[in-house]
Amino acid sequence: MSDYLTTAVPGTGGHIKASPEDFLVEEIPLYNPCGEGEHLYLLVEKFGITTHELLHRLARACRIKEREIGYAGLKDAKARTRQTVSLPGVSPAQALALELENIRILDARLHRNKLRLGHLAGNRFQIRLREVGENALDHALDSLHILQQVGVPNRFGEQRYGVLGNSHLIGRALLRRDYAEAARLIMGDPALISNERWRRAAGCYVDGDLEGALEALPDRFRNERALLRQLLDGRSHEQAVLAHPRKLLRLYLSAYQSYLFNRVVAMRLDSIDLLWNGDLAYKHDNGACFLAESFRLAQGLSMEGERRPLRVPISDPEVRPEGNDLLLSFALPRGCYATAVLREIIKADVTAEF
C-alpha cells in the first residue's frame, strides 16, 4: 500500500512555516454581499490570532455580543489569513474606522443575512516551501500535475488531533466508554508536553497525586482543572469527563471520525480513481450529500455521520522558484486541508497547523 498518491515522483524536501508570513490563506466566498441589509460583511486580514480572538476583539470594539457575529470558517493563528465575518447593526464607516492590533479591515459591505458556518466555496493558499532539495521545481510540477488529473487525497490535517496529537484517542476512549483512559489522555502524556508546569501536573496525575496535579496546572487549563476538582470531590471518571463542555467532547469524537476517515483514504490510495462495489459517487459540482448512520452516547453527544469525498479537485495550482525556496499557490474546496497537498509534494508528513 502506497503512502502517497504521487509515489512515483520524488519529494521536494524542505520545510514550511518558518515564519507566519510564509503562509497565506484566503477564503473564497460562496456569495458576495448584496449592498443592503442589517448585517455588515467585513473582509478582514488577521495575523497571529485565532478566529475566536478576532470575534472577541470585534465584539468588544463594536459593543455587540460575540455570538451575534457570523463567520464561515476557522482560520489558523500562526499565519496571515483573510476571511469574512458579519456584524449586526454596525455601519461601514464605523467598521472601517476600527484600529485593532493584528487586524486590518479590508472591505465593508451590507447584506441581508448573518454569515453562517460553512458559507464559503473554498480557500486559496499561498505557501513558501523553504530550503528545498535538488530538482524540487520539476518534482513539484510533476506532483501537481498528477493531483490535477486524479484529485487530492482528502485527508484531514494533523492539527485535527490537537496540540498533543491525541484528540482522536480521547474520542475513541469516549466511544468505548473507557472514561479513565479518556481522563488520562486529557491530562496528557508527560513525555509529549513541553510546558514545564503542564508536564509536572501530568506527571503528578500519572502518579495518582491529584492535589499536586491541580496545584501545578496553569490557571488557563480550565477544563483540566475542573476535571481534577471533580475527581478530588469523589466523582467517578465518567462523571468528571462528561462534565466537560459538550462542544469539546464532540470535538474529540469528531477527531476520531477524522482519524478513521484518513485510514480509509490510505487504504484506497492505490485505487482512488476507481469505483468499488458499494461506493457512492460524489459530484463536486453540486455537492450532493447522502444519509449515513450515526452513533449515540450520553445525551448531547450524538454524532451524525456524513459523507466525505476520498479525493477533491485542486484549482489553479502554480509553483515558482525563489532562491532556495518554492512558492506554491492553489485552491481547495471548503473543509479540505493544504497539508494534504503539501504532503504529496514534500513526501513527508506535514504537522504544521493549517
Description:
The protein is 33% helix and 20% strand. The protein is an alpha+beta fold and 354 residues long. Strands 1, 2, 3, 4, 5, 6, 7, 10 and 11 form a 9-stranded mixed β-sheet that branches. Helix 4 (167-175) packs across helix 10 and helix 7 runs antiparallel to helix 8. The mean pLDDT is 90.
Which properties best describe this structure?
alpha+beta; two-stranded antiparallel sheet; 11 helices; 33% helix; 20% strand
The sequence of SSEs as H and E is EEEHEEHEEHEHHHHHHHEEEH
Overall pLDDT metric = 90
Portion of residues within helices: 25-40%
Secondary structure class reads alpha+beta
Instruction: Please give the number of β-strands.
Output: 11
The biggest beta sheet is recorded as: 9 strands, mixed
Gross geometry: globular
Total of helices:
11
| End-to-end CA span | 26 Å
Radius of gyration (CA) equals: 22 Å
Quote the beta fraction: 15-25%
Topology (elements, then pairings):
Layout: E1 15-16, E2 23-29, E3 39-47, H1 51-62, E4 70-71, E5 80-88, H2 92-96, E6 103-111, E7 120-130, H3 136-150, E8 152-153, H4 167-175, H5 179-187, H6 196-206, H7 210-216, H8 222-232, H9 237-242, H10 246-268, E9 311-312, E10 315-322, E11 325-333, H11 338-346
Parallel strand pairs: 2-5
Antiparallel strand pairs: 1-7, 2-7, 3-5, 3-6, 4-5, 7-11, 8-9, 10-11
